[in-house]
Specification:
alpha/beta; 5-stranded parallel β-sheet; 37% helix
């Protein structure tokens, strides 16, 4: 283990660290904002980083917004952002299906409008989005006729998740050739005021349990979302850092991809969590550095 693991960034160390970085990858929820409230100082930090010639990208597991919608939110909260800098799981799921899986046929989608729009923009046909109320009884549910053109099941955040949708997903996934893809496995989504709501991971686990199969994960800690940035924009891993609030997604992904990691304590994971992983030897879940808030980096950019 490197001696610098889980080191707090302050003073001269912050300045030397930022001087060694060209590209900063930011998670969003819990890092730059909570719900619809920006983390104090976060917009100023992003804008200062860009003024100092740093490249900034936004990597989010949240599948409820399109690239365009995220860009709009960033702008509304005071962040200087462009659509090409945003890599959300709705967008990256569409890329995976189109470019990696080379999807032929339809997708059965358990997801909201953003996923539906991104799939549509990528030319991928899909069914299933929206409410699916329970009708009939056991024998009717067991007799559900699948659409023969469906070749993949995609699970994202779905406010209309229901027993009927779970049953349909199981019906499709009984075919071993049917792809099974999930946007992410985050179990909670942080909101303003310290509140949380269940995340997509809760829905993914339900489908995995019913289907007796594991989903291919698009978002962090999978490296695919990082690979999307590399392919579209290019970067030098040795001069890149991942900034996040979750050890099991943001920090794990950074470790997997061989880039430095920075934990901010304004979201999901705590410093005690990181120290516990460090003591147990789970070093891929331990950040290289940590700050109380991303705004702690501002003084090093203001001198």
């Amino acid at each position: 283990m490197a001696a610098s693991k889980c080191t707090r960034l302050t003073g001269d160390l912050t300045r030397s660290f930022l001087a060694s970085v060209d590209t900063v990858l930011f998670d969003c929820d819990g890092v730059l904002w909570r719900g619809d409230e920006a983390i104090p100082g976060a917009p100023e930090l992003i804008n200062k980083l860009k003024q100092h010639g740093k490249r900034v990208f936004y990597l989010t597991n949240n599948s409820t917004k399109t690239r365009a919608a995220y860009t709009e939110k960033l702008g509304r909260l005071g962040f200087n952002a462009e659509s090409r800098e945003v890599f959300g799981t709705a967008y990256c799921t569409a890329l995976y299906l189109r470019d990696i899986a080379r999807m032929q046929g339809k997708v059965y989608l358990m997801g909201g409008k953003a996923l539906s729009q991104e799939l549509g923009d990528a030319g991928i046909q899909h069914v299933g989005s929206g409410p699916d109320p329970v009708t009939g009884g056991f024998s009717d549910w067991a007799a559900i006729e699948p659409d023969p053109e469906v070749k993949a099941v995609v699970v994202g955040f779905d406010e209309h998740f229901s027993y009927m949708k779970l049953t349909r997903a199981l019906r499709y996934l009984q075919d071993p050739a049917c792809l099974f893809i999930a946007t992410n496995t985050d179990t909670r989504l942080p909101l303003e005021g310290g509140r949380v709501i269940p995340g997509t991971g809760c829905l993914v686990r339900a489908v995995e349990t019913a289907a007796h199969r594991n989903a291919q994960i698009i978002g962090k800690p999978s490296s695919f979302i990082y690979d999307c940035v590399v392919k579209e924009c290019g970067l030098d891993a040795s001069r890149t850092v991942m900034v996040g609030d979750r050890l099991d997604t943001d920090i794990q992904m950074g470790s997997t991809c061989g880039i430095r990691t920075l934990l901010t304590l304004t979201g999901f994971s705590t410093l005690e969590d990181a120290k516990s992983y460090q003591q147990s030897g789970s070093f891929s879940l331990v950040p290289d550095y940590y700050v109380e808030s991303v705004s702690d980096l501002l003084p090093a950019l203001s001198e």
